[in-house]
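Input protein
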Amino acid sequence: MLDGHCVLSDVTNWYQSPGEVVFCSTNPILKYTQDDISQRGIFGTLLCTNFRVSFISDETPQEEPTQHFKNKLYGENDIPLMCVDCLYGVYDEKKKLITGGMLKNKYPSKMIIHCKDLRVFQFCLTFTKEEEAKKIFQGIVHHCLEPKSLKCVFAFSYANTKGPEMQRTQRTLMFDSQEDWSQEMKRTKGNCRIVTENQNFELSERLPKYFIIPAAVSDDDLSKFPGKGLPIWCWSHHSGCALFKASSLPVTQEDGVAQAWMERMLHAVAQTHLYSVKIEDLLETLPNIQDIQQSYTKFKQFFLIDNSTDFWMSDVKWFSSLENTGWLDIIRQCLQKAVEVVECLEKENTNVLITEEEGSDLCCVISSLVQIMMDPHCRTLTGFQNLVQKEWVAGCHAFLDRCNHLHQKDKECQSPVFLLFLECVWQLVQQHSPAFQFSETYLTVLSDSIHVPAFGTFLFNSAFQRESCLKATLQHSQRGPLSWPAVWDWSMQFDCKAQELFINPLYAEKLKQEKVLRKVPRIKHQRQLSLPSSAFKTPPKKGFFKDEAESLKKMLRVKRFSRWMVPPDSPAVATRQFYEAWQQKPLDYHGLLLPCLDGPAMRLWMQRYLRWTPEAQILGGGSVAITSKLAELLGEVRALQRELAQKGWWDSMGEGHHRPQTMSLALVRTSLRLSSYFPFAASRNWSFKPVIPTGLLQSLMVTDKLASQEDETNEVISLV
């Protein structure tokens, strides 16, 4: 039974998820391939459920293709409803954008769906009966584009079906208990205090149930303003200084109470270490969320390809067009700002307070990047997941609004801030691959999982909203409290073999022997490898010590400290010197890590953005061929290590239990048959060689004077 909505009597080979309800379906529908303008395709059934839009082919494959990276929740012909970005209809050969209010009687001849993971689907409706075509079109538009209630999201139906086995994962800290926060502060040796007064959200609905603040903040100051301006602890440096974040509290000259309160908060931060503090208002130096959204909207259009002609038309000025969107520059700016904060903590041993309007967008980006650069634990798979859970989920990033999961008309709140963070992390992974235990495939899958409506991790705006939904559903439910699975339980989406691809085979795992041989404390070791010795002899700066409290008090009256108290062009110069000094030292993959910010160093995340574009695939080549070969060599080295260990000649210190044996050798040895965008394009059997159509080629040769090139062409140019 399908809850009385729709019965699929003629559809086989389709798995219906627990709690999934089919709203409408129709057959036959022609699904076009994306290879060229010939409009080839396959016939099948198109259906819409409370979880996804799904296409089931009528063709029965002669043999089941081997898929090493198959998602258990949805297949390559499925589109989770939250993953639908926009929808187009083709009317009289003209492509028009469909909005939620355009439910007219006239349906298009072709429906084009652009997805947030950059897939493009094209469905022809002309072979279907008029009433059925109209019904499926209007059903998809309604469930994918119309504003909806949070309780209509599939996660609420899916959660009802799950028992105790879907509770929180054991390895990843959820930061929903006092013990999790205590464990994190103990790990970083912080000297702040945990606040428990917000267990019932009496202090603020925009703060987590538990959080950490400077020890000098009094209980009376906690309730002065509803969470605004309160310095929230992020991370503690081994020297004793710490990183804090806060939402902005507008203070006017006439508001003496607010001014005095803010002054006390800054004093409290300063007292954490050496009575020093530096403030950075991120909105003064970084783009706001609207700028980020506009830039990404332009950027993603270059990867939503309807056909080969569109791809080659954009190829002429592709790189310059990408640069003009400003997206890569925003990534560079965020990394630059994170390096500036790192310099304050590492070189100057100064407490840092970063602020913005809500304290849960760019503050999350910068605080997370700082911890990844400075804390090697955050570069492991478990540590990274802990970081995201702490800074983003428990930190009350507004995932529901920023990702527009409910398709609200007001898109002022929509902005891919979390994706921006993942982009920055990807840049670090590319530049310092051996320092990261997780792979770029893991980051790509994580970016996709934001839009899978089966998990509670990226579904809510705050812990308060999550708790409110739990209480509301409990009152009307006969099945007990809901339990949303966490996205970190990767076994829900992938089997063990697929999860091996989340691990970076080139990760330089810290050797156990170092703990025995090195008598030098880890703190000193990190500092020696990250800064020149002269950095530790820097004379103390006036105004940052307890005996000069009055001087500090005067400076605290201004809205924002300038980091260097010098002209605005100096920070970039000083940061460049800091980076160059770090470069001169031997690279320690378990110490401080800084990115190169030069223009050519900012690269395109090709696996994420071009994995669905056949014309961009390199069969048997690309980075996957290099990585798989290195993984194969690494497997041989580890086999030799085990053999030596059996003979007592080698301590098996390289056999870390956190890491599988690298990429599955069954996959490695087939690299010649893989696409460059393995594992996402590995299961696709491209039946053609990407070519430039003759007419387009001639226009390109005339327009851009390509005729002088050595290659002669008759009808097509083959790329492989």
Observations:
- The chain is about 35% helix and 10% strand.
